[in-house]
Design brief:
binds S-adenosylmethionine; binds iron/sulfur cluster; single chain; 41% helix
């Protein structure tokens, strides 16, 4: 017999498209099963559990059948990334923010709600853009609203401003996933890259959040560590794993990413990671109980998957001024004017629903599915 929680509590109604309805229903059934047996999900709540199952089953899938379904049905986005601030307090040597000529801006809370309200079935949100979120005075209000809506929330932070008060709020809100952007295992290397940051402050803030989580016996936020690999810090990758171990942090994963785009100003810092180097990091992680992973952009260039394997366009990225681009991987190339020129629309100028069903978006998805290059993805390094 149909369990009413599937259609009401979890999904807020059935979907009019039978093919989307069938997948949603199947995912909801699996989520309900897990909810019935696992305390972890019971603590998270039924709606969150469904949201998490949906995201994990669909986003960045490598399952050919699921990809076929995605391209055929092109479901209205359930996952978005929103840039809440382009103010920053650091001048990191690998980041476009240090070099660009964009105006610094905070998104207002009202504009943020305008965005959220256009995605009534939203399940997942990332609140990181090119900037430091805590410089937006409304940032915690935004986090609070996202959690009130039962969303999975992910964020990246430089941890320079994340003091005891902010840390406590993150734990109270149960923000789901937080990346610590730490690109070195020593004070010397870190401060050379993250210009303006103080190693001791950042380590103290990381420890404070970990302590509060433990005091409050709280699993969230999950700690992920993010290390952007360049010629300046590559020699510290193994030591980085050892540092996380020494700190005694409850770390879900240490993730290594190479520069997204080796643009003019940072070209001389760009480097690849060899399989042997990856193995050494992963092995040390296994010895110390730290889960290490390498981002998709570190893959062998000859093994880059075809465009038609991409479904990352299911998570549009929304700039602080409302500009909509297909995904986050076109960031960090220090050419926002090009991103604005090839944009899919502006959400503060017209409803997202109109942008999504417009020719530009539809054609882009069609071209990607047919392995044809489109203007928005012409500079993609993840798929070819
Ligand atoms: C742009 S920052 C914004 C959030 C916050 N300011 C921070 O540093 O975490 C988001 C992530 O992008 C990473 N990043 C910066 N420059 C990059 C680059 N050239 N290529 C890839 N990732 C980069 C940062 O290390 C950080 O983890
Ligand atoms: S990486 Fe983050 S902290 Fe560093 S300059 Fe970019 S936005 Fe600012
Ligand atoms: S830029 Fe690349 S990753 Fe993003 S949607 Fe286009 S093909 Fe996919």
């Amino acid at each position: 017999m149909l369990d009413p929680r599937i259609n009401y509590t979890m999904r807020g109604g059935t979907h009019p498209n039978p093919e989307i309805e069938a997948i949603e229903y199947q995912i909801a059934e699996n989520a309900l099963k897990a909810f019935s047996t696992e305390i972890f999900f019971q603590k998270k709540g039924l709606k969150w559990t469904y949201n998490w199952f949906y995201y994990s089953s669909i986003y960045a899938t490598r399952d050919p059948e699921m990809l076929k379904w995605i391209y055929k049905n092109r479901p209205y986005p359930d996952f978005i990334e929103v840039e809440t601030s382009t103010f920053c307090n650091l001048k990191c040597t690998m980041c476009e923010h240090t070099y660009w000529c964009e105006k610094n801006q905070n998104m207002s809370y009202e504009d943020f709600l305008i965005i959220l309200n256009q995605f009534p079935r939203l399940k997942w949100i990332g609140l990181t853009g090119i900037g430091e979120s805590y410089l937006n005075p409304d940032f915690e209000r935004m986090l609070t609203e996202c959690k009130r809506r039962g969303l999975f929330v992910e964020n990246f932070d430089n941890f320079t401003l994340l003091d005891e008060k902010h840390a406590r709020k993150l734990v109270e809100l149960k923000v789901d996933k937080l990346y610590v952007s730490l690109d070195g295992a020593t004070k010397e290397t870190y401060e050379k890259i993250r210009v303006g940051a103080k190693w001791e402050t950042v380590i103290k803030n990381i420890k404070t959040l970990d302590r509060i989580k433990k005091e409050m016996n709280c699993y969230e936020p999950e700690f992920w560590f993010h290390f952007i690999v360049s010629k300046d810090n590559k020699h510290e990758m193994v030591k980085y794993i050892e540092l996380i171990h020494e700190l005694g942090i409850d770390c879900k994963q240490a993730q290594f990413t190479i520069l997204l785009h080796p643009y003019k100003e940072i070209k001389d810092k760009a480097t690849d990671v060899t399989d042997e180097e990856k193995r050494a990091v992963i092995k040390r992680g296994q010895e110390l109980g730290i889960n290490a992973s390498f981002n998709m952009n570190t893959q062998d260039k000859s093994k880059v998957p075809p465009l038609s394997d991409c479904s990352l366009w299911m998570m549009p990225f929304i700039f602080v001024d409302g500009t909509v681009i297909p995904c986050c991987s076109m960031n960090e190339q220090n050419d926002r004017p090009w991103q604005v020129k090839t944009r899919l629309g502006n959400l503060f100028e017209e409803p997202f629903r109109k942008i999504w069903y417009d020719k530009k978006y539809t054609n882009m998805c069609k071209q990607i599915s047919e392995n044809k290059q489109c203007a928005q993805c012409a500079r993609c390094n993840l798929y070819k």
